[in-house]
Amino acid sequence: MIETKVFNETTKPDAATRTAIIDFLYKHLEQFGDAWDDIARAVDYSLKNYESFGGFVLVSYFGNQMSGVVVVNRTGMKGYIPDNILVYIATHNEMRGQGIGKHLMKETLALADGDVALHVEPDNPARFLYEKVGFTSKYKEMRYKQAEI
Q1: 50, 86, 94, 134: most buried, per Cβ within 10 A?
Q2: C-alpha 25: how far from its chain's center?
Q3: Domain coordinates of the chain in residue numbers?
């Protein structure tokens, strides 16, 4: 049975749980992940550990083991871009194919206040789950990166 716990600005995880969440994402996002510090910033944004619009972190457990994590950040831009961005979603690499991702996605969409956007690599197999629950591709994203000095 999948159990979930929601963390946000009023129900924050303790320091050990915060670190476990970040470590989980760092490991289980695999080739679609980011640097540990970048993941930590997204988690801290959702928990309003610094000035931000907040959001939430949804963690699933199978027994006592963490089985999945979702990080959603509010954009503060209601009306002209989606209200939320699903920054990260990952399931334990040994528990995939058991419906955990679908469960997390449905619960995330129910918890989110407003529309939700996400970015997905074209070769990410999770793209099919996102399409199944109703995500569509409206735009091709383009980015310009400033040169680092």
Answers
A1: 86
A2: 9
A3: 2-132
User: In a 10 Å sphere around its CB, with 0-12 CB exposed, 13-18 middle and 19+ buried, how is residue 107 labelled?
Assistant: middle
- Model pTM? 0.89
Signed CA dihedral, 33, 34, 40, 41: sign only: negative
Distance in angstroms (rounded) separating the CA atoms of residues 135 and 137: 7
Mention every residue, 6+ apart, whose C-beta is less than 8 A from residue 17.
Answer: 7
pLDDT in tens, 57-80: 999 998 889 999 999 999 999 888
Q: Which residues 6+ apart lie within 8 Å of 98 measured at CB?
A: none
Assigned superfamily of 2-132? Gcn5-related N-acetyltransferase (GNAT) (3.40.630.30)
- Provide the residue type at 141 as one letter: E
Digit-coded pLDDT (tens) for 106-147? 999 999 999 998 888 878 888 778 888 888 887 777 777 888
CB of 12 within 8 A of CB of 50? no
